[in-house]
Amino acid sequence: MKFIYAEYNENHNSIDITTFDGYLLRIDCNKAEDGLKTTPFSQCALDALAIDDPLAYARLYLEGNMQMWVDAEDSLELW
After folding, report:
1. What contacts 24+ positions apart, CB below 8 Å, involve 32-37?
2. Residue 74 class from Cβ within 10 Å (0-12 exposed, 13-18 middle, 19+ buried)?
3. DSSP letter at 53?
4. pLDDT at position 3, please?
5. What DSSP string runs through 4-39?
6. CA-to-CA distance for 16 and 24, rounded, in angstroms?
7. Cβ atoms of residues 3 and 18 within 8 Å
8. CA distance 79 to 62
9. Which residues, including other chains, have CB under 8 Å from residue 9's CB and lie 6 or more apart?
10. Nearest Cα to 33, choosing from 43, 45, 48?
11. For the purposes of burial, counting CB atoms within 10 Å of the CB of 24, is it exposed (0-12), middle (13-18) or buried (19 or more)?
């Protein structure tokens, strides 16, 4: 089993993922979110996800499910 560690890097607005094999992957949040259709509510939720659970954010991006997650967040918004 290979362990990984992820953290939000506020200086670069990125998710830095480190594997214990010595690899480092940096996901630029600006580029990851480029082209997403968000509302202020879903943008706030996406920002919170990057900070609070950076590994989940990275997984959404790498699997190509970020827009689907954003759409689901927007459908939960109270009117």
Report:
1. 32/61, 32/66, 33/66, 36/66, 36/67, 36/70, 37/67, 37/70
2. middle
3. -
4. 72
5. EEEEEETTTTEEEEEETTS-EEEEEHHHHTTT----
6. 7
7. no
8. 31
9. 15, 16, 26
10. 43
11. exposed
Give exposure, 35-62, as e/b (b: 16+ Cβ within 10 Å). eeebeeebeebbbebbeeebeebbebbe
Residues 2-55 have pLDDT tens digits of 778 999 999 999 999 998 888 999 999 999 999 999 999 999 999 999 999 999
Domain encompassing residue 53: 4-75
pLDDT band at 77 (very low <50, low <70, confident <90, very high): low
Number of domains in the chain: 1
Nearest Cα to Cα of residue 38 among 78, 15, 71: 71
Is 90 exceeded by the pLDDT of residue 56? yes
